[in-house]
Amino acid sequence: MGNLVGDLPVFLDTSLTVYIFYTLGNLFYITGMYDKKVSLLGVSIMLLSYSILVFYLRPSVDIKYNVFPWYLLLLSLIAIFSFYQISLRVSSYRNICVTFLADTGKRSLTLFGLHRPLWFFIFPICLKLGFNLLFIVFAELLTAFFIIWPIHSLLEKKLPLLIGQSKRV
Amino acid sequence: MKDRLLQFDFLKGFGIILVLLGHTPILGLSRDLIYGFHMPLFFFCSGFFFKKRRFSELLFVNCKQLLIPYVFFLLALLVSNFVVEFHAYKSVPISINNIYQKLDFLDERSYFYLTIWFLPCLFIVRLMYSLAQYVSSNIYYHILTGGGILCYG
């Protein structure tokens, strides 16, 4: 278990491994499953089983290097489906937390692409200031939101092409 | 129906927080729990919004949505790294050789692979899935193929 489709260059191996998730995402739409709600008890059982199995199996995972044990296909689907169910329920409430997470989702590409360049600067500063692990995690997360959100808004207005959008907002 | 589903924004928002957390120096079980599903989640979401297109249109849209941001983020990564290195070593190690080493796509430790690997990977997956649609539009064949590939190793 581990490198499942060999060691191909330019992410080809990883692409082959994650192809199933893309396909299942499409199936989720085609079959109309996205509208169906599962009881909270069911979701809790699924999340609990995911956590327990990951705890016992302790899989070595790094999907970008194509290290993804086959049994994680089922486990990750359980987790994805559970969190989807939570999203489905929670998104009907319009409160600040839901709006924040939904807005974060809309900015996910920019957060994804720019947090590393940003943290190149933040991490040495945290070390210099003698932050402990928890504070470093906290500082990195905070800076990601406080700095990348305005950058996203700026790019969205001035250079939407750079974040994969076509229309100027 | 696929226009803007708030639950998917919410799900992606949750997913990106996990990505950020996964890249902080956390270790142990919390890392394993996050890494077990956080990136497949994004491929799953992307698959949900799949649209069948003509090949030329597909290439154009994918280049615009994925490859241009990829180049931009890669440049941001390189520039920030050069700035940090300059600050640390008081010299600017900008040379063709140095840049080549950072962008060497055969070296899995190069920047080419760091963090933003998701974008070219999604580009390939979308192309593969669209091409497979020309062969057969029966989704169950694709699931069998994808599952087979995953379990083959």
Total helix count of chain B?
7
Distance between the termini of chain B: 37 Å
How many E-type strands of chain B?
0
Indicate the structural class of chain A.
mainly alpha
Give a quick account of the main beta sheet of chain A: strands, pairing sense, barrel closure: none
Shape of chain A: globular
Biggest sheet character of chain B:
none
Strand content of chain A: under 5%
Considering DSSP H and I runs of 4 or more, what fraction of the residues of chain A is helical? 55-70%
Low-confidence stretches of chain A: 1-5
Q: What is the string of SSEs of chain B from the N terminus onward? A: HHHHHHH
Overall radius of gyration of chain B: 19 Å
Taken in chain order, the helices and strands of chain A follow as: HHHHHH
Using only CA atoms, what is the Rg of chain A?
19 Å
User: If you average the pLDDT of chain A, what whole number results?
Assistant: 86
Which pair has the most extensive contact? A-B, 88 and 83 residues
**Measured distance between first and last alpha carbons of chain A:** 47 Å
**DSSP helix fraction of chain B:** over 70%
Strand content bin of chain B: under 5%
Number of helices of chain A: 6
Tell the overall outline of chain B.
Answer: globular
Features:
heterodimer, A: 169 residues, 6 helices, globular, disordered N terminus, B: 153 residues, mainly alpha, 7 helices
Question: How would you sum up this structure in a few lines?
Answer:
With 169 residues, chain A is mostly helical. Chain A is 67% helix and 0% strand. Chain A starts with 11 loop residues before the first helix and ends in an 11-residue tail after the last helix.
